[in-house]
User: Fold this.
Amino acid sequence: MAPGIFPVANATVPFWRTELHEIDEHRSTPELPAEQDIVIIGAGFAGTTCAYYLTQDEFTVPSITVLEAREACSGATGRNGGHCRPDLHVGFENRKNVKGLDAANEVACFEVANLQAVKQLIRQERIECELEEVTSSNVYLDEKQALGAKDNLEEMLDLGCPTAMMVNYYGPDEAEKVSGVKGAKAATTFPAATLWPYKFITQLLSIVVDRGVNLQTNTPVTMVSSTADDEGFWTVTTPRGNIRAKKVVFATNGYTSGVLPEYKAIHPVRGTCSRIIAANPPAERSRIGSLVPYYAPKLADYQANRSDGSFVVGGAWTTCRFKHTNQWRDVVDDSQLVPAAEGYFNGYIERTFNGWEQAETTVDQVWTGIMGYTEDGEPHIGKVPSKEGLYICAGFNGHGMPLVLLCAKGLVKMMSDDCDFSQTGIPSLYETTPERLQATAVI
Ligand SMILES: Cc1cc2nc3c(=O)[nH]c(=O)nc-3n(C[C@H](O)[C@H](O)[C@H](O)COP(=O)(O)OP(=O)(O)OC[C@H]3O[C@@H](n4cnc5c(N)ncnc54)[C@H](O)[C@@H]3O)c2cc1C
Assistant:
């Protein structure tokens, strides 16, 4: 594949890709169609759900082709931690301070609504992806951070924030017992879900293909014309030929600037994840189904307990976040592990949880994946500025599972009804604007 900000060949194999769906390398037609109403670039969570909502009304299905550089769901969605875990309180304070109380509440409530919508969609479409409703936990090991979390939650309660009412807080006396994490100084718990993300998205994609969408895997888009032609068509270029399209949706997450150069505000960030098996688990298990241990600000892992008794654990940021930035920031190569993170997950369970010291764990698989981090920490959704007919749904900052679905639904409303962003139900902070494309900040 072309060098630059594009998906690479021979990606590491995540646990989720050990059971492949028949659609994995599907091509609906041997050749690409010459012309389409809509081309969607990317067959991950965002691209698939955009296609799903665009084909909801069986009487007005537009012609749609989904172009995917590698296999179906082979990007971040097929490589993540298997969590749909809304952020009810962690990102709130910063948003409130920078953008105001209403904006902060809007985002937190949107995350809760997404969790609900994901569960509903999976049930409605009878998707078998090991969906499990769990109690998730943020666990604080740093005393200062623990106190900060407590103050933040109390402030949220004083302000009447709806999502704060859904959070339980445990102080130093209870945190270790509730979470099972050694040395926990505080913990919060709240509703979340775990699932098999690849199974979720490939089954949804299969429904979309049955509705008539043309899926073309192993078909990287190398370029999209910088202007539309006289008839309003954009040219989408691939090594297998071009497609003229009235509308193009960029569901390309961390790779967006490869095909839409003005989106340098979305950075590819390489994350690490693993699957861990315990040969000798204790008889009495931790009650927490999923959790994030925070060791210090910006240093955390994340963990989902699977029904087969294994753990999916990701992060390893303590080994590389500040010391080895070049190994993860602006990196698109998920065919390699992050060198500084190699070996991190060995003994993770034993050193993290009370009662698991003799668990005899082995790290079954380690993989990497490319996330899309934005300069201001919010996704970019909506009309690409100054380019009539181009739309974006990308930049989910390693946290797309409780965001993507209703972003895709809102974007499709914009595309179908030609409505204003403010009528989509998507948080106002997510609207892509020329100003946001110029923003620079810290990742
Ligand atoms: C290791 C890791 C752990 C994570 N853990 C979690 C978690 O537990 N919870 C959570 O909420 N989020 C998590 N995330 C983030 C989450 O997976 C993403 O936010 C979400 O999946 C984004 O979906 P997407 O469709 O936007 O992106 P993707 O799934 O990356 O889809 C984009 C697709 O576009 C394709 N593409 C890109 N460029 C081109 C091109 N030029 N031509 C054709 N196709 C192209 C890619 O191949 C890819 O398939 C994690 C991510 C990683 C990598």
